[in-house]
Design a protein that fits this description.
- The protein is built from no helices and eight strands.
- The protein is mostly beta strands and 126 residues long.
- It has an eight-stranded antiparallel β-barrel.
- It starts with 20 loop residues before the first strand and ends in a 5-residue tail after the last strand.
């Protein structure tokens, strides 16, 4: 007899982001991240970082810290037009009913004018 599958985490502060993939779901008009942007997250303790690319983003990186269900980081990327851009972001972790994770982000460019809110979440599993 096999052991039952473990229940998905329900408390956002207990979710390990290491190895999770996220995709853009929605963003404010000033943002570059879209539904074609894919993020690969990593976590070691309170250190969080990710690589991202897709859509108008050719290659991007973010690095920061985590406290409970919150993230605080800086991001920088190169777009498909060859322009660099960067800024700061805070995110709140939400665990969806099916166990996937969603990040609610509030961000501000530091390299150009603009602020906004975005959502990225784990894609549906097959």
């Amino acid at each position: 007899m096999t052991d039952p599958a473990p229940a998905p985490p329900t408390a956002p502060e207990t979710v390990d982001l290491d190895g999770r993939t996220f995709v853009g779901v929605r963003n404010t008009a000033d943002g570059d991240v879209g539904t074609d942007t894919l993020f690969a997250y990593h976590q070691e303790g309170d250190l969080v970082w990710a690589e991202y690319a897709g859509g108008p983003v050719r290659r991007g990186f973010l690095v920061g810290t985590r406290a409970g269900d919150g993230l605080s980081f800086r991001y920088s990327h190169l777009d498909t037009a060859g322009q660099t851009a960067g800024g700061a972001c805070t995110s709140r972790i939400e665990v969806l009913g099916d166990g996937r994770v969603r990040l609610h982000e509030t961000w501000a460019w530091e390299s150009r004018p603009g602020t906004g809110r975005s959502v990225v979440e784990e894609p549906h599993r097959p």
